[in-house]
Amino acid sequence: MSIARLELIYRLAKQPDAVPVLFVHGIFSGAWIWEEHFLDWFAQHGYHAYSVSLRGHGNSSSPDPTGQYSLKDYTEDLKDAIQAIEQNHKQPPLLVGHSMGGMVVQRFLSQHIGRGAVLLCSIPPQGMMPLSIQSLWSNPVTALEMSHTYMMPELATTGQLQRYMFSGPVEQQKLEKWLLHMVPESQQLIWDMSWRDLPNPFEVSKTPIAVIGATQDKLVPRMTVSLTAATYGCKPYWVNSGHGVMLDHNWKDAAGVVVTALAELLAKEESLSA
């Protein structure tokens, strides 16, 4: 069911017929995470840049007072955002899903053929179980601390945000501001992304897919990114960054890699229509 208010933040390119791109945020965050740097940058580089806040995040409606939303709920929000953009520009957007947002994009593409999608530091189509097993095997103390943060993000510290999300130095003032924007995540969603409501890779593959990973990502490591890319029959792009690529100190490098991936998707679209 659609929600009463769906937040869409945007920056428009100078060219009216520019290609729209919709950025989908990850766990705990909202459309604001793309507004910091990416939206202006992508508009300046010739894209109509949009970001959506899924229900319970940012300034979108929160119809459930307990905050228990399903992956299907978030997929419905994504569908509504795509439809709004398509009405505005008479063409569907390319999708960029980060982390949890990548799973939302994949779940949507299990039921709808899209124009093209970039999975950025995304949860793999196999769900969160491979991530959890790999994290427990490689660094059990860190894995347990991250699990605690998933359950109670309101107790997270700026130090944890720095360690888990970024590869380089970040100003303390920025960390404090971003932490204030973080919201608790749905436990129902965690189960959906673990095993209960995973995407169908065969259906997702009907949409052109590009995969990007971050070499210093502590949450979605290289092996997981490679698994996602192998599932969809493509080679991953890499950016030398932490998980929070859109806020890290070298965010421009990440933006450049995303643009390269978007260009690949548009080239595929052109070749298919030729």
Description:
With 274 residues, this protein is an alpha/beta fold. It has helices at 32-35, 38-44, 71-89, 100-109, 128-138, 140-151, 158-165, 172-181, 187-196, 201-204, 222-231, 251-273; strands at 8-11, 19-24, 47-52, 94-98, 117-120, 209-214, 237-239. It has one domain (8-267): Alpha/Beta hydrolase fold, catalytic domain (Rossmann fold), CATH 3.40.50.1820. The protein has a 7-stranded mixed β-sheet, sandwiched between helices.
Key words describing this protein structure:
single chain; 274 residues; alpha/beta; Rossmann fold; 7-stranded mixed beta sheet; 12 helices; 7 strands; globular
Question: Judging from the principal axes of the Cα atoms, what is the shape?
Answer: globular
Tally of structural domains: 1
Instruction: Give the count of helical stretches.
Output: 12
Helix-strand category: alpha/beta
The gyration radius over C-alpha positions equals 17 Å
Work out the helicity level.
40-55%
Q: Which quaternary structure do these chains form?
A: single chain
CATH class: Alpha Beta
What can be said about the biggest beta sheet?
A: 7 strands, mixed
Describe how the helices and strands are arranged.
Blueprint: E1 8-11, E2 19-24, H1 32-35, H2 38-44, E3 47-52, H3 71-89, E4 94-98, H4 100-109, E5 117-120, H5 128-138, H6 140-151, H7 158-165, H8 172-181, H9 187-196, H10 201-204, E6 209-214, H11 222-231, E7 237-239, H12 251-273
Parallel strand pairs: 2-3, 2-4, 4-5, 5-6, 6-7
Antiparallel strand pairs: 1-3
Helix pairs in contact: 3-4, 5-6
